[in-house]
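Sequence only, no structure available. Ideas?
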Amino acid sequence: MKKSVTDIDVRGKRVIVRCDFNTPLNDKGEITDDIRIRSSLETIGYLTNLGAKVILMSHFGRPEGTPDMKYSLKPVAERLSELLGKEVLFISVPEVIDRSVRDAARNLKPGDVMLLENVRFRPEETKNDPIFAKELADLADVFVNDAFGTAHRAHASTYGIASFLPAVSGFLMENEIDYLINTLKNPKRPYTAVIGGAKVSDKIALIDNLIDEADTLIIGGGMAYTFLKAKGYEIGKSLLDAARIGLAAEMIKRAEEKGVALLLPVDTVVSAEFSNEAPWAIASADEIPADVMGLDIGPKSIEIFRKVLLESGTILWNGPMGVFEMSNFAKGTRAIAQAMADSRAITIIGGGDSAAAIHEFGLSDKITHISTGGGASLELLEGKELPGVAALEEL
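Reply:
I predicted one. C-alpha cells follow.
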C-alpha cells in the first residue's frame, strides 16, 4: 500500500506536486478541454486548506528539451487561477528554475500556489538527470505525485525527485492505484474484460495477463479479425496482423485451457471503403466477403456482449469495438459504453480511446472509474510496475 497525501503532515510545509497539465490548445492558444486541470483540484485544494505552500509542476507537449513558448504553461496558470479563485503565481523562465523561482518558492505563504514552467524545457527532465531532480527537490519539503498519466515514465519530475524528498500520492494517483491495482486484484466476479483497438501487437501483454485474471474476455475492434483468421475464418479486406495469427491462436487455446470464455464477434459491419459515406452491410464474422472490410461489431455480437456485461460483477474496458470516429461504425462502441452504464458492476475504463468514447457519448457519470492515463493504465493492466508508482513510499 502506497502512502497518500493524507498520511503525512503538510501544514505549513512547501509541497511540490507533479500534475499532468498536458491539455489541448486551439490555434489561439486557448485551452479546449480542462479536464486534466480539474482533475488536480482535489489535491491542490486539500493542500491549500491545510496551509501548505504549493508548488506545481508539469510537462506540456513535446518541446524536446528546448524552451519553446508555444509549449508554455501560461494558459494553464491562467485557467487554474480561475478554477481556484485565487492567483497562481507563474514565473516563466527558460531554465524552469532560477534565482527568481527559488526566491518565490521560499517566500510563499500558507495557502499560496505557484506553477513552474514546462519541465520539458530542460533536456534533463526526460533523462531523469539527478542534478535537475535535486533542483526541483530543493524547492520543497515534500513531493506529491498526482500525475498518473506520466507514471510510466522514469523522469526527473516523476521518479528522480523521490530520491531527495518524502514521496506520496495525490488523490488522483491514489484513485488510479486503488481501481487499477487493488480492485482488479480482487475483482467482484464474474470479471469481464473488453479489449478492442486496431492492433494485436498493442495489446499482446494485456490479453496475456487478462487470461490469467478474467472470467470472460471479449475481443473487438480491428484486432478481432486477426483472431477470427486464427480460427480459419475468411475476413476479406479486414485489418490483419499476419505476423501474429499464430500468437492469436495460442491465446485462444490458452484461454480455453484456463476456462476463460474468449468471445469474438459473430457478425460485423462491413464496407468496401474506409469511409463514413460508403455503403455498408452486415456479414457473418466467419464469412466476410473478399471485397469488403469489417469496421464494427454487428447487432448479434452487440446482443451477446451486452448480456455478458449486464451479468458481470466487474468490467474492464480498453479499446473501441470499431471505427467509432465514423457514425456508421460507432454503434458497437456506443453499445458497450451503454451496457457498462446500465450494468450494476464495478466499471473501469482504462484510458485512451475508450475514455474519449465514454465522454463523447455523455456516459462518464455512469462509470465507476475512468483512468486518466492511456499509456500508464495500459502498462499497469499488463502487470508492469510503473516507475512513478514504485517511487512512492510504502505505508
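The two ends are 6 Å apart (CA to CA).
Hope that gets you unstuck.
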